[in-house]
Amino acid sequence: MALPEVKQTATEARLATLTMPDAGCTRAAREDALARVLESGLPNRRDEYWKYTQPDTLVAPHAAPAAVLQDDESLIFDELDRLKIVFVDGVFTPEESDDLSLEGVVIDRLEDICCKDIHWAKELYGVLEARGQDPVQRPLAALNTAFATDGVAIHVTGKPSKPINLIYRHESPESDVVLHHVIRVEGGAEATILETGPAASRFNKCMEIDVADNGTLHHVRAQGRDHERRAATHMFTRLGQESVYKSFTLTVNGVLTRNEQIVELTGDDAVAHVAGACVGDGDFHHDDTVFVTHDAVNCESRQVFKKVLRNGATGVFQGKILVKAGAQKTDGYQISQSLLLDDDSQFLAKPELEIYADDVACSHGSTSGAIDETALFYLRSRGVPTKDATNMLTLAFLAEAVDEIEDSSLAEAIVSRLEGWLARRS
Amino acid sequence: MAALDQTQVKEGVDQETVDAVREVGTYKYGWETEIEMEYAPKGVNPDIVRLISEKNEEPEWMTEWRLAAFERWTKLDEPNWAMVHYPPIDFQNQYYYARPKSMEEKPKSLDEVDPKLLATYEKLGIPLKEQMILAGIEGAENAPAEGRKVAVDAVFDSVSVGTTFQAELKKAGVIFCSISEAIREHPELVKKYLGTVVPVSDNFYATLNSAVFSDGSFVYIPPGVRCPMELSTYFRINAENTGQFERTLIIADKGSYVSYLEGCTAPQRDVAQLHAAVVEIIIEEDAEVKYSTVQNWYPGDENGKGGIYNFVTKRADCRGDRSKVMWTQVETGSAVTWKYPSCILRGDDSQGEFYSIAITNNYQQADTGTKMVHLGKNTKSRIVSKGISAGHAQNTYRGLVSMHPKAKESRNYTQCDSLLIGDKCGAHTVPYIEVKNNSSRVEHEATTSKVDEDQLFYCRQRGMDEEEAVALVVNGFCKDVLQALPMEFAMEAQQLVAISLEGSVG
After folding, report:
1. What is the mean pLDDT of chain B?
2. Has residue A379 been placed in a domain?
3. For B428, which of A346, A355, A363 is closest by C-beta distance?
4. Taking CB atoms and an 8 Å limit, are A326 and B423 in contact across chains?
5. Domain named SUF system FeS cluster assembly SufBD N-terminal: which ranges (chain A) (predicted)?
6. pLDDT value for B8
7. Considering just the CA atoms, what is the radius of gyration of chain A in Å?
8. Residue B151 has what pLDDT?
9. Is residue A403 domain-resident?
């Protein structure tokens, strides 16, 4: 079917600013992805999947400039021992990165997967993204596959001793970055991937994660704290039998953030937890879009999303649990909650279930409201100033999402940052 | 129903529920009345619109209104966002107007109505004689005379056959008649309210309805009047290949109250038939309207052949402060249902409630729910939706709760549960939640963990374990909803009371 003219024009205008990298073995995958973009067109405000988030600035031919945050704050996981992989305005920077060799994991640059003939990465690139286009199209992810300029391939074969930290630094106010990572966790292997940093003025990131039977991947990400950046990220995860995937995202500030998580449980007894906490202030629009597909027996999935919003901030949650026919004994849980600290902020949610199997337990909940006056009064009556009491209750509210992080040192790092930011802002 | 007999149900699902669903699935109203009909030519175009208008002896402004709607309709696309699938509808290959020949001369009273028509309603359990009590309701004979009176407007294909108790209602100042009569007799009221809740171009089917609606009911309750009896409309599709497009307009003026019931059935046929109705309700200050539906259109056979496509737009506008509307629906029929009775809570302190039980079996598809649009301060809404799916059916709850910035201190509570019987069917939930101020509270849940804590505590105190307590409270609530249905629906609803939602999924 022909695209509406507006969409066609917008898509062509965006494509005109991009050149497909000379990418050797990923060429075919990129061409296919481009075909997907041409077929669906880039999203616009009339698309149902973008009902609550205007994609205009993410689709525009050029990124709107974003001031680089001048900040003396140290990097979030600085106190932790980790392997750093640094991207400056979307370009891998070896000088700032650690030595990439670490026992239990093999890390390569995306551009090297062809010359080094890294089979798994060549076979994974663009594949999970393509699978994730059905039943809902995700044209920004296809655009990413077609035009990504950098990224890493992480092959987890054992149990590396420390987390791998992808650090995105933002230096140019004009930066417009397209990154694509592929990750493969082998059977029995286990790793933690951290992502931190503001990345770029406009950031389009795609991550494809394939977890084999009995593999485990932890993912913790901190987005923020710069005000003007825009980001659209996609994480495509496929889970094998008895594998585990646990992801947590903290988002603070940013004019526009759209985080899509697409999780497919394809092996029996797999577990997927996807969580997020966000603190939005002022000109802030944050969108968590999650799509979990149960396609195997006895799998468990959890979605826990908490948003604290004030000064006109907008929080969006679109979550879906799809239980395919035959995916019996599924345990699906989804909760999305917002705390609106003032009257200007808004929370828009669409928590969906689509179930084709009868022996399942799926539940979802969504609530929205102001801070609990009784709790506030209780704290105040015990001498806690209003400001501190509000922060305390806000933190307590976010805790349910932060609790999804298994590693306590990572959770503590997140909590201490949250405390600092709340104190600074109030 | 053989398919359901062999279905392995998941442990924990109540056998009584399975039986009740099976019972609902046997269609008792599939017979046809043999009666000579008069049709307008097939298809829809401005001439047909004019013809319908002419048959109803409408004034010029009404004809113009219809033609404008038709013009809009030709520019609209059919909606495709609902989770329902059906072959494309050929809008030009069906009749838009069909009336029994005997209705050519409008009968002056019920005594003059064709006995065949009266017999049809008799057989459906809806006697059109004022002195008769409603058939089929146990114990109704003993009910006090006042309590058992129900005024009925009977719509047969495209025309209203008759309306009972009109004279008695008139004494109370209540106007209850067919909409075609209202357009002739009370044009000022119709003109003032028609299309103000569901605008002409609201959606594809509402626009089509605006152009070609042939009849329906009109209710006006004057200020301060509590309608002395329940009002009801019974829709019967009988003619083949004919769409039914009815329009209902209910106006509850300040401080009034009315309970309105709607029932519908159709004969069993191989070819699907279209039913696209519009219901508009206007509720002024301190008024209250209760609208109950038992939708039992022919659902198609066990292979999904035939049945009614039920594409309905229903909306209540709580214009006045402290106005209240309550939608209760039991949806068991139709091959495809696309229906979202909605509440616009415009007046401060207004209230909207939506209780729904939707049961789909065989190849039925239902996409139903509600919209609660909170505009006024301190408005309250409650949504309780129970969907049950069996066979190859698909059952979707789709709803919107919207708290506008000015709707301070408003509350919404939503609970939607679904139950699957068998592994070939589907249950889906698509809620939209939009909160634009922070003094309002919105809760959407599909778990049983948040049942009223006090009630739970009470039950547990008396030695029940948590699960028992939750089941008791939830089931008690479900029964409450059903028992709140007016007595006339009791028969159909009674068996549904047995339904338990243990083992349900969000």
Report:
1. 83
2. no
3. A355
4. yes
5. 25-157
6. 65
7. 21
8. 83
9. no
Domain ranges of chain B: 2-35+45-76+177-497
Query: Domain limits at A106?
Result: 5-370
> Does the pLDDT value for residue A396 go beyond 80?
yes
Radius of gyration of chain B (CA): 22
Of A346, A359, A365, the CB nearest to B436: A346
Cα–Cα nearest to A291, from A306, A274, A278: A274
Spell out the residues 6+ positions from residue A63 whose beta carbon is closer than 8 angstroms to its own: A174, A175, A176, A200, A201, A202, A230
A360, B505: Cβ pair inside 8 Å?
yes
Note the pLDDT tens digit of each residue in B113-122: 888 888 888 7
- Number of domains chain A is built from: 1
CB distance B414 to B383 below 8 Å: yes
Q: What is the pLDDT of residue B489?
A: 56
Nearest-Cα distance to chain B for A264, in Å, is 18
Q: Tell me, what's the pLDDT at B490?
A: 53
User: Does A426 map to a domain?
Assistant: no
For position B506, what pLDDT does the model report?
Answer: 46
Q: Tell me what pLDDT residue B397 has.
A: 92
Cβ contact A355–B418 (<8 Å)? yes
Taking an 8 Å cut-off on Cβ atoms, the answer to whether B428 and A354 are in contact is yes
The C-alpha atoms of residue B273 and residue B383 are separated, in whole angstroms, by 30
Residue B309 has pLDDT above 70, yes or no: yes
Best interface-test mutation with B: which of A353, A354, A372, A374 has the largest number of B CBs within 10 A? Answer: A353
A301 located within any domain: yes
Quick check: B81 and A48 CB within 8 A? yes
- Model confidence, pTM: 0.88
> What pLDDT is attached to residue B5?
52
Cβ-based contacts of A367 with chain B (< 8 Å)? 441-445
